[in-house]
Amino acid sequence: MPGRLAGKVAVVTGATAGIGLGIAKRFVKEGATVIFNARRADRGTAAQQQLRQLAQGGEVHFVQADVSVREQVEAVIDRALNGFGRVDALVNNAQRLVTVKPIMVKPDEDYQNALDGGFFASKWAMQRAFPAMRDQGGGSVVNMTSGWAWQAPVNASDYAATKAAIEALTRSAANEWGRYNINVNVIAPYAKSKSWDKYAAANPDAARLSQASNPLKRAGDPEFDLGNLALGLVTEEARFITGQTFDGSGGAFYLRRTHSSTEAWTGKM
Ligand SMILES: NC(=O)c1ccc[n+]([C@@H]2O[C@H](COP(=O)([O-])OP(=O)(O)OC[C@H]3O[C@@H](n4cnc5c(N)ncnc54)[C@H](OP(=O)(O)O)[C@@H]3O)[C@@H](O)[C@H]2O)c1
Fold this sequence. Notes:
By secondary structure, this protein is α/β, with parallel strands linked by helices. The chain is 48% helix and 14% strand. The protein has a single domain (9-255), classed as 3-Layer(aba) Sandwich (Rossmann fold), CATH 3.40.50. The protein is globular, with a radius of gyration of 18 Å.
């Protein structure tokens, strides 16, 4: 039986680890050709090898690129367009949590870095992919937010602000692009990843609390839990779903909207 993404071309940013790698795995297993990027080439080569072993008919290509640099994230989209002539699914996943400081001492450049690596990165990739999606008759965009966009975390206002901006961009794009059969949605994930492991190691109490406050009592699996959610949003069956924020946190973010576990970890990342 052909995979659900057979013949489709997907771009997944930041897919050498964590959620991005989980989504890329899920997509290649469904037959998609996947173009992905990250900044570190050695990890890119390793992930490419891993993904090629799982591929079900599609191709897999790594591009070394920093999404916070416009020309570089555009080059990732161009790799798909020049190589395969289309982009059916774009997952703007890459983003790192960089500094942990209260608003009064967090410099403007931290906000700019967070915006460049998240909000602008997503916007630049979407702008580059849009003409192809429009001309080919449709496509899907999945962006990544965080529960911290709503939970007002202490010490991470730059990250929270860029995630809130990504949600607003998602809704506006959904409204502008729906007429071209392009759906645009956003996921708020909570999953095992390199960043999560680093955070949990530095903040064991906060990590335990965070896991205990999740109705399912665990972080998500990048491939099974988040990969399937993203897959569901880029298949033909999801074409009537747009402009929505999906809780990919096992219910933690929506059910515990006021819970924040960032108080204690200034300087610990
Ligand atoms: N894990 C969670 O529970 C959680 C919760 C809320 C939101 N999120 C969001 O979910 C997404 C994935 O998070 P994650 O925890 O899976 O992250 P992760 O484990 O840190 O992996 C991040 C991936 O993105 C790449 N990356 C980071 N910055 C990049 C940049 N500027 N340009 C290109 N690639 C970049 C990394 O590779 P290089 O370092 O080599 O570039 C890596 O492949 C992010 O948008 C994050 O904000 C995650």
